Every structure is written in structure tokens, then in C-alpha cells.
Amino acid sequence: MQANLKLKGLLVITLLPALLLYSFFVIIPIFWSSYYGFFEWSGLGEATYIGFQNYMEVIQSSVFWRSFKNNMIIVAASVFGQVPIALALALMLRKRNWFQKVVRSAVFLPMVISTVVVGLIWGYIYDPELGVINAVLRAVGLESWTKSWLSDPSVNMYAVAVPIIWNYIGPYLIIFIAAIQNIPSEMEEAAMIDGASGWKKLIYIILPNMWTTIKVAVVLCISGSLKAFDQVFVMTGGGPAESTEILATYMYNNTFLVYRYGYGSAVSTMIIILSLILIGISQLLMRRKNG
Amino acid sequence: MKKALLGLVIVLMLTGCIPNADSETTNEETSGKTTISIWHNFAGDDLRARKVRDMIASFEEKNPNIEVDEQAIPVDGYRQRISTVAAADELPDVFLTYAGSFTDEFYHGDLIQPITPLFNEHSDWKNAFLDGALEPYNYDGELYSAPVAMSATSFLYYNKDMFEEHHLSVPKTWNEWMEVIEAFNQQGITPIALGNKAPWVAQSTTFGAIADRVTGTEWFLNAVEQDEASFTDPIFLDALNRFKQLVDKGAYADGANSMDNTQAEQYFAQGKAAMMINGAWSLSSLGASQSEEVLNNIGVTVVPTIEDGKGSGNTITGGPGGGFLLSSKTEGKAKDAALDLIYKLSNAEAQKQIAESNSMVMYDVEIDKKNVNPLFYEAFNLIREVEFAPVYDLYLTSEAGEAVNNGLQEIMLGGDPEKVAETIQKAQASNE
Amino acid sequence: MKKRWFHLIKVTFLSIFSLMMIYPLYWLITSSFKSNEEFFAEPYAFPTSISWGNFTRAWEVADLGTAMINSVIVTVSATALTVFLGALTAYVLSRFTFRLKAFLMVFFLLGMLIPIHSTLVPLFTMMNQVGLLDTYWALILPYTAFELPIAIFLTVAYMSSIPKDLEEAAVIDGTGYWGIFFRIMLPLSVPALSTVAILSFLRYWNEFVFALVFINDNSLKTLPLSLSIFSDGFSTDYALTMAAMTIAVIPTIIMYLLFQEQIMKGMVAGSVKG
């Protein structure tokens, strides 16, 4: 009984600081924000209660759903780009010689650059006149492939997704390297004795042991891509003509460019709801695969 | 267990909402010194920003009883910062505003008070403002600010050598303009440099001027009020189609929508494009970044007239620019100090200082040719011979302004002007 | 023979890949030595002359010295707080069973989905009422709060993989819960915690929007705010912007190079234990 009380005290003391901090700065503002969603409010002066009008408008807005689609492109690019690339790199980078160390450092390097700088640099890389990409295409005789990558709506969303992938391969690589190193070495040795090597080892030993980590990475990917903002904001601001608008820029533009705080708040509430649904779906899918 | 959590949340909300002891009203301090706060966006390294900061510093020096709490906020985040503090009712005593809907919001929110006494006290000063300069800040007969800038957004800049080399003359009419564009295109030269990544650029620099020439100013002002004019009217569609014609003629480079304004200026200055339609801000940025030789090779004029249009041809879109506002909460000694500061930053001397840092002002002032760059001097004289036409986004609601901006980008991507017109009309009508 | 070819392809691939990762940073640094004219005329060439003019000018105008100190204070405190609270919470969530556990786990994970920008206005109002604005806390606390979910998530995943025998032995020796936390769990979780530390350090160092809205006082401004000072909406001084960005990025690179060894060591420790 006493031990039980002591344990309860410990739980309260250890959990309370994080819980308080998190509730106050993250959770409560969400409720405020969804509450603001019921008002027509320019941010200045009086707010008028308008019921579900903002929420209805969000659901009916074609730009909102285009933003959602664009977000899905980024999610897909991250899940099927970042995760496999990081995984492949992690498998290739298992030695600790200087070459591999340099490669590891290089892969992580983009993380240290602020997202604003990343957006700016890639804006230059994509520039139709001065950009590296078009310069290379011209040099190898593929003149007809040159494009204005960020303003041509048929390609610009994919162009925007690349820097986001590029930016965040590093952390996934580290997570994967850590996971591979944590695979008990007896298991690998046993596999070697059984004559399993190369692909077989990968499929039967390494991947199954990393499944939890991969799942973690996928969830991080999804939530990270849904929150993506800075790079898109710097590279295109959601334009031209809202063709690269994603959920976060749509919300931001409505709140701080058009001064519809109420509508912007309704959009952010919808973003949270959509994210929850997506994560739920991804969890279900992966559980099935696992079982 | 959910109840327990809910309880916690409620407690937090309550403690979060109980107003703390008034930390806000620190305007007047007991020490006898008056503190006033001022926020502005003259944060950068350009000549004008430095001059304005110097003026504030010298004000503080000359008034030992007044302490000025100055915040220079980068332009990028300025509107957002001011909006956020306004939403929380925490505006500084004095702050820079932009003419038009931004100021309207403060007025309608009762967040500012008039500075009319200042104008009554200094009538010479009041009379020296150019025609219409104080109009945007006049609400029900009371004046709320004095502009310290002129926004002139649609100069046509051209490269003298390039026109000469190809035996072309600077276009005066729409048809001449189309011919010139075609001629440059045949030479493989981009006719007009445009950096429309921030989508207000095409609207503010180019479309406003074209539309004014087509529809005339009166129609536009009526359409803003939704008074027997609508953005779906054929006349406005004609204006949009003129812009589409520019696009279809290949006036702009391929990536114009992903280039920023500075890149476009450089593109033009390096002789990669023959013309550029841009605002007075280019006078200062080109002046700061280009050599005398390059500047002498640049000419400046107005956008060509449209012969069968309703508007007068000799106009530049623009008008009074930003000025300083006084918060409605500032009272007593702090108010006196704030009024003094506003005067100091917008009086005749201040206007001259600003003009001589290669920035246009709405004030009758003589400038010394030696103190400014040649391009600025040419434009400064040009502006006195033309009339002003309204800048679209200063009159439209912010929502409709965005609709125009995005619509022009859509047209550049091959969109349908008719649909664009509908969207603009819907946005403007929703706020009436 | 086949193996050798494979090795060669692998090395080539990795080299090209690394160059792609490094190039933009190289471009940033070389650009910061150029004048505006040179920057636009020769965006990819090596600078014609090495002059430090851009750096000294940017440092002065944007008052980068003060900004640097503020960024260090905010980033280091918030990172320390994040690592400590994250580890403590993860310890409890991964090692004890109690009724609210599953609920709390989900509750914390929800935070990973919340776009930071959607809370700006309410957060501003709330912090204003409790008098937090314009203090270092106005950044340290929300930064930590927003990073906690990922910190907890990563650390719980890692701690769950640590075998329980060590703890059981310690309990038999009479070590208390705190003793287990500080002497066993914390040292064993160094790999996960260094990942958390690096991720949060970088995020805090580069964060712009909260810093913009919650800090008014010039003397408290952090670095990212000082980077946008050279852009006024109409024009951007690219040379000074690049120089300021280079100055801002150097501490993070140094931090990373120092910390990186730490992570690698931690990983080895982790795998030896496994």
C-alpha cells in the first residue's frame, strides 16, 4: 500500500511539469482556435458569432481541397522518398571509416541550414534562366525539358516537394542507423552460420527487426509533411495562382494576408482533424501489414 | 479519468484568462520621464531607413524628458506583428501604417485617435502637402495621419541603348507598345522584366495602370463601392483581356511568376530585358545597386495610353503612402510627446530628408539634384506632370485584392479572364 | 569481382549524393562574399575577391552580436528543458503501468500534428495575460512544449527496447526510482537523447514565427529575426542577407560536428549493450 502511494506520488511529480507545459502551450490554444472558428473576425475590433459558416466555407472551398491534395503529394514524396532513401543509406553506411563518416555528415548537413535559406537556395536552383537544373539540361542537349520549375503548375508541386525531402533525410538516417546497430549481433551471426547473406539477411533479419522504427519514421513523415510550411512559403508563397498552396500556407494566407482570423482558425481546426484521420489510417494499414 | 483531464484543462483556462495586474499601462512612469513607444518598419540598411532612425534618435536627444521605446520591425513581418498586437489590444503609442484598408481596420476598431490639432497648429505644413495627400487619412473630417511617403507604383523604365540599337522609339500608345514587344521578341530579348513571385507586383505595377486607362478612375471607385458597377462588367473584362494580350504577346519571361522583384530589377539592369514596369521603390534600389553609367542609360516614363479607353492616359497609379498613427489609448503627457514625435517625423524638414534619400513624398519640397541619383531626379520631375490613379489593392478589401493578385497569375498561366472577374466580384461583394 | 564492382558503384553513388547535399551550403558561403552585382551576374562562380565587407556590414546593421547571444540563451535553455522533461516523461511512460498511460501517450502524440502557426493568436493573448511576453520564457516555454511530443515519442521508443534486467537488479540493490532514472535510464538513453537534443537545437535556432510575434524588445531578438532585416518587401539586399545567413549557420555546423561524435559513440554503446 505504501509502495503504491509512493509510486502514485512519483507519477504525479514526474508527469506534471511536462503535462502542464504541453497543455498550456499546445492543447489549450487549439481549443481557443477552434472557438475563434465560429466568428467572423478581422483580427481587429469586434468579432461576430456566425455559427458553423466558416467551417462550411472551408469544406466547400476548392482551394482548401487543392491544398490538401498538394499536402498529400508532399506526404507521399516523404513517405516513399525520405524513408527508402534514408533506409538504403543506413544499410550502406554501416562501417565507421572516414568516407562513411563524411557521407553521414553530408546527409545531415541540410538539417542545420534554416528552412528559409533552404527555400532561397532551391529557388535559385530552379530558376529558369540562372538555375543549375536548366543549365544542366541545356548542356546535355535536353533543351526541350527545361521548364520554369516553380511557376509551371504541371510540375511545380513536385518541384516544391524535392527540397523538403532533401532537407530532412538526415534525422531518418540517424534513427535507422541507431536501429540497425541495435539489432542483436547474435542474430546476425546465427544468420551467417545458416548461410543467409545479402538480400536474404536484409529481408529476414534486418527489416523485421526494424519494423517498429520504420513505423515510427512513417508517422513522423506524415505529421512532418502535414506541418510543412517554411520552404513552400519561401519558394512560392503558395503561388502562382495558389497552385502550390498547402494546408499551412492556406491557413496562414487567410489569417495574416487577408485578415480573416475566424476563417483561418477554422482552417487550422480542420487541418488537425484531417491529420488525425490520416495518422489513424496509416496506423491501420501498417498494423495489417505487420500482422 | 477524462473528467480529471477536463478539470485540469478548465483550471488552466481560468488561470490563463484571469487578467494579471495591469502591466499594460506603463505609458507614464513615476520618475517624471514620459515613455512613448513607436513601431515602424524602417529596419534595413537603405538610405531612407537610416535617416528615419536618425530622426528618432535626434528627437530623443532633444527631449531629455521623453524616452522613446523604438521598435524597428523588418517589413516582411510588420503587418503580421501589428495585426497580432492589435488583436490583443496592445498597440504601441505611435506606429507606421499603410494608407487604405489597413488603416481603415484600425479606424473601425476604434484603435486610433485623430491628430487634427497638429494640423491646426501648423497650417503652413498642412498646406504644403500635395493635392489629395491627406485624403486617405481623413475620416469624418478628422485627420489621423500625415503621409511620409508617396506610393507611385507604375513607372515604365526602359533601356535607352537597347531601344536605340534596334531603332525603336519608346511606345506612347497601346499599339506602338505591342509592336515594340513583338520587335524585341524577334530579337530574342525579353520585352518586359517582371518579378511576380509576390503576386501583388503585377497588380500594383502593371494591371492597375492598364485598367485605369481602360475603365477610367470613376468606374473603379464605383465598383469598389459596388455602386452600379461590378467587376463582371464588360469594361473590366476588357482590362483583364488587355493584360492577357500582354501575356500572349510574350511580353514576360517564362519564370516571371517565380522571380522576385529584386531579381527582376537586376535582370532589367543587366540589359536582359528592354523594359520594366515598376514602382518608385526601384528608383532607390537601382540607385543603391547600380553604377552611374547604368543609371544614365535607364529612362523613365508613364505606361502607354490606350486610345479607345475611358481613362486619361497620363497617369501613374499611386498616391499617399504610409504615415504614423496615434493609438487611441495614449493620453495625457504621453499623448503630447507622441504628437511631437509624429510632427518631427513628418514635418517639412523630415519630408526633405526622405525625398533626398531617393524616396518620393507627398509634400511640396525642392530637392537638390546633387543629393539624389539621376534616375530619381528624372522621375521626381515626371511625377509633377502626371495625375494619380488609384492603386487597386489600396482600395479593394484585402480579400478582393488577393483575388486580383491570384487572378493575374492565373491569366499568366493561361486562365480564363471571365472566371477571374467572377472571383474578384464575389470577394469584393462579400464584404459590402 | 562482382563484389568489387558493387563497391565501386556504391562509393560513386555515395560521393555524388554527398556532393548534392553539401552543394547548397557551399553556394551560400561563396555567395556571401560577392557584391550584389556579382551575385546576379555570376551566381555560381567562385567569388572574384575574398572580402569581409558583407560580413562586417551585416553584423553591424542587424546587430548580430546581441542576436547571437539571445539565440544561444534561448536555444540552450529550451534544449536542456526539452531533453530533461522528455526523458523523465518517457521513463514513466515506458516503464510503469498505470490507468492513464495509454491515454497520456495518445494525448502527447497529438501534439506532433499541430501546425505551429495555428496557435499564434491564442498563444499571444494568453501569454500577454500572464505577463510572459517579451521575456526569454516567451520562447523557451512554447518551444519546449511543441517539441515535447517528438522528444517523448523518440525516447519512449528507445527506452522500451532497453531490457528490464538492469533495473530489476538495481531494485534488488535497493535503488529508488530516481536512482534508476538518473543512473541507469538516462545514461543508457544517450543515443535517443542526443538525437532529441540535435533536432530541437536546430529547430529552436532557426525558428522564426514565434520569435517574430512574442518578442518586441530589440535587446531580446533572436537570429532568424535579424536575417529578414535586409528585405523590405520591394527589394532584397542579397549580399548582406547571404552574409548574415552564413554567420547564423556557422554555430549550428560547429554544434553538429561536435555533437555528431557524441551520437556515434552513444550508438556504439547502445549496440554493445544489445
Written account of the structure:
Chain C: Belongs to the binding-protein-dependent transport system permease family. Chain C: This is L-arabinose transport system permease protein AraQ. Chain C: Residues 68-259 form the ABC transmembrane type-1 domain. Chain C: It is a multi-pass membrane protein. The complex is a heterotrimer of chains A (291), B (432) and C (274). Chain A is an all-alpha fold and 291 residues long. Chain A has helices at 2-36, 53-60, 62-92, 98-112, 115-125, 132-139, 156-167, 169-181, 185-193, 198-227, 230-235, 247-257, 261-290; strands at 39-40, 48-49. Chain A contains 13 helices and 2 strands; from the N terminus they run H-E-E-H-H-H-H-H-H-H-H-H-H-H-H. In chain A, strands 1-2 form a two-stranded antiparallel sheet. In chain A, a hairpin with a 7-residue loop joins strand 1 and strand 2. The longest helix of chain A has 35 residues, at 2-36. Chain B is of the alpha/beta class and 432 residues long. Chain B has a 5-stranded mixed beta sheet, with helices on both faces. Chain B has a 4-stranded mixed beta sheet with strand order 9-10-8-11. In chain B, strands 7-12-14 form a 3-stranded mixed beta sheet. Chain C has one domain (62-273): MetI-like (MetI-like fold, Orthogonal Bundle), CATH 1.10.3720. Helix content of chain C is 75%, strand content 0%. Chain C has helices at 2-31, 36-41, 53-61, 64-95, 101-110, 120-129, 137-160, 165-172, 177-188, 190-206, 209-214, 223-227, 238-273. Chain C is globular, with a radius of gyration of 23 Å. The chains are: A mainly alpha (291), B alpha/beta (432), C mainly alpha (274). Chains A and B meet through helix 1 and helix 12 of A and helix 1, helix 3, helix 4 and helix 19 of B.
